[in-house]
Amino acid sequence: MAIVTLHSLDSHQDLAIDPASIGGLRGRITIPGDKSISHRSLMLGAIATGETIVQGLLLGEDPRSTAACFRSMGVEISELNSEKIVIQGIGLGNLQEPADILDAGNSGTTIRLMLGLLAGSVDRFFVVTGDSSLRSRPMSRVVKPLEQMGASIRGRKGNTLAPLAVRGRSLKPIHYHSPVASAQVKSCILLAGLLTEGRTTVTEPALSRDHSERMLRAFGANVEVDPDTCSVSIEGYPTLTGQTVIVPGDISSAAFWLVAGSIVPDSELIIENVGINPTRTGILEVLQDMGADIALENERTVTGEPVADLRVKTAKLKATTIAGDIIPRLVDEIPILAVAAVFAEGTTIIKDAAELRVKESDRLAVMADQLNRMGARVTELPDGLEITGGTGLQGGELDSFTDHRIAMSLAIAALNAKNPTTIHRAEAAGISYPEFFITLKSICQE
Ligand code: S3P
């Protein structure tokens, strides 16, 4: 049996991993473009005036959903590829009423950020929906502040779930104190704030990723940040001008290789062109604290975002505690950090991470259940996980629950298990990392 095999079953794929013959992971890895920056480049390109060029766009399902939505609102976007795409901006406030429902697919970023722009598109009507996962995720976190700005939004379960119907209205600026540290909430309100006369401010309990702030500034908006209070302000109706955006590799995708390279014996990987925006580098800090051997090389800045190549070598990991303000800086990496913790000596505690319950799946419940099926010792906490590591993993028959980060995290766990593993619905990886399995195969040494 080959080390990594994919079997197609109608629309689903099973991934089989046989760890017995893996003699380490080696190679140079190019990772796909950052998902957050890809979405934002499409959206800001759409609402700016003039041409925006995007290089390195992520070709996963999520940005494809964003591109499809904006195309159906009259924005010309060239065929998607990772080399270079061109967006003909239609100008702020000019999104057209689509002839049909807007489908955000699996993407929380698409629906939540887009709602900010739709809410202020005066006199136009929009219906937005998504797949079954997205239709179960909370939308009140953006509907409430948008209503405070004067938006008209109706949806299932008291306007909290998609499908949502939006009648665009003239909005007013607000100062919103968000109960959650969420870049999606913050960005939604900032985008709505573009369509108001005045200054809109968002204050969060901890700093979330700041890609919107950086890119809005680069396109010409007046954005002010107060890091001490975790507040961001934006002035309405700026002149937004199309730009060239070079999308760095996604550190959330690099995270799988950082953990794989750390836990699989005799490994050394170089991951090229990784975005190391400080609002995203919690994963590096935690892995280094756990004893990982990770070096940053060739650090540089590319169109406003810091980038480096990362070198990782096998290391003995020890347990840690992950809690508090660092959580938003590694929120998408908690499933793969749970895998690292399984192979670390001692008991790792993850707290303050209740947000994981409302991601593409309930990532706390799913990771605890799936890792325990492999023989791990994981206890679910209301807002986290307690993981006693160092006992090794058996193989198992697992499921992604259609969550891309679960599929990839379990695949990495399987590389270091004692017996073969099968992961059902592994194709979910394509949401953020279409080439994941090809890369995985290419770095496995026999
Ligand atoms: C994202 C923000 C995060 C993250 C998601 C992408 C973004 O969500 O989990 O994958 O691009 O703004 P929250 O803002 O809901 O924490």
From TrEMBL:
<comment type="similarity">
    <text>Belongs to the EPSP synthase family.</text>
</comment>
<dbReference type="GO" id="GO:0008652">
    <property type="term" value="P:amino acid biosynthetic process"/>
</dbReference>
<comment type="pathway">
    <text>Metabolic intermediate biosynthesis; chorismate biosynthesis; chorismate from D-erythrose 4-phosphate and phosphoenolpyruvate: step 6/7.</text>
</comment>
<dbReference type="GO" id="GO:0005737">
    <property type="term" value="C:cytoplasm"/>
</dbReference>
<dbReference type="GO" id="GO:0009423">
    <property type="term" value="P:chorismate biosynthetic process"/>
</dbReference>
<dbReference type="GO" id="GO:0003866">
    <property type="term" value="F:3-phosphoshikimate 1-carboxyvinyltransferase activity"/>
</dbReference>
<feature type="active site" description="Proton acceptor">
    <location>
        <position position="332"/>
    </location>
</feature>
<feature type="binding site">
    <location>
        <position position="35"/>
    </location>
    <ligand>
        <name>3-phosphoshikimate</name>
    </ligand>
</feature>
<dbReference type="InterPro" id="IPR036968">
    <property type="entry name" value="Enolpyruvate_Tfrase_sf"/>
</dbReference>
<feature type="binding site">
    <location>
        <position position="108"/>
    </location>
    <ligand>
        <name>phosphoenolpyruvate</name>
    </ligand>
</feature>
<dbReference type="GO" id="GO:0009073">
    <property type="term" value="P:aromatic amino acid family biosynthetic process"/>
</dbReference>
<comment type="function">
    <text>Catalyzes the transfer of the enolpyruvyl moiety of phosphoenolpyruvate (PEP) to the 5-hydroxyl of shikimate-3-phosphate (S3P) to produce enolpyruvyl shikimate-3-phosphate and inorganic phosphate.</text>
</comment>
<protein>
    <recommendedName>
        <fullName>3-phosphoshikimate 1-carboxyvinyltransferase</fullName>
        <ecNumber>2.5.1.19</ecNumber>
    </recommendedName>
</protein>
<feature type="binding site">
    <location>
        <position position="40"/>
    </location>
    <ligand>
        <name>3-phosphoshikimate</name>
    </ligand>
</feature>
<comment type="subunit">
    <text>Monomer.</text>
</comment>
<feature type="binding site">
    <location>
        <position position="405"/>
    </location>
    <ligand>
        <name>phosphoenolpyruvate</name>
    </ligand>
</feature>
<feature type="binding site">
    <location>
        <position position="137"/>
    </location>
    <ligand>
        <name>phosphoenolpyruvate</name>
    </ligand>
</feature>
<keyword id="KW-0028">Amino-acid biosynthesis</keyword>
<feature type="binding site">
    <location>
        <position position="184"/>
    </location>
    <ligand>
        <name>3-phosphoshikimate</name>
    </ligand>
</feature>
<feature type="binding site">
    <location>
        <position position="182"/>
    </location>
    <ligand>
        <name>3-phosphoshikimate</name>
    </ligand>
</feature>
<dbReference type="InterPro" id="IPR001986">
    <property type="entry name" value="Enolpyruvate_Tfrase_dom"/>
</dbReference>
<feature type="binding site">
    <location>
        <position position="184"/>
    </location>
    <ligand>
        <name>phosphoenolpyruvate</name>
    </ligand>
</feature>
<dbReference type="Pfam" id="PF00275">
    <property type="entry name" value="EPSP_synthase"/>
</dbReference>
<dbReference type="InterPro" id="IPR013792">
    <property type="entry name" value="RNA3'P_cycl/enolpyr_Trfase_a/b"/>
</dbReference>
<keyword id="KW-0057">Aromatic amino acid biosynthesis</keyword>
<keyword id="KW-0808">Transferase</keyword>
<feature type="binding site">
    <location>
        <position position="363"/>
    </location>
    <ligand>
        <name>phosphoenolpyruvate</name>
    </ligand>
</feature>
<feature type="binding site">
    <location>
        <position position="35"/>
    </location>
    <ligand>
        <name>phosphoenolpyruvate</name>
    </ligand>
</feature>
<keyword id="KW-0963">Cytoplasm</keyword>
<dbReference type="InterPro" id="IPR006264">
    <property type="entry name" value="EPSP_synthase"/>
</dbReference>
<dbReference type="InterPro" id="IPR023193">
    <property type="entry name" value="EPSP_synthase_CS"/>
</dbReference>
<feature type="binding site">
    <location>
        <position position="36"/>
    </location>
    <ligand>
        <name>3-phosphoshikimate</name>
    </ligand>
</feature>
<feature type="binding site">
    <location>
        <position position="359"/>
    </location>
    <ligand>
        <name>3-phosphoshikimate</name>
    </ligand>
</feature>
<feature type="domain" description="Enolpyruvate transferase">
    <location>
        <begin position="23"/>
        <end position="439"/>
    </location>
</feature>
<feature type="binding site">
    <location>
        <position position="332"/>
    </location>
    <ligand>
        <name>3-phosphoshikimate</name>
    </ligand>
</feature>
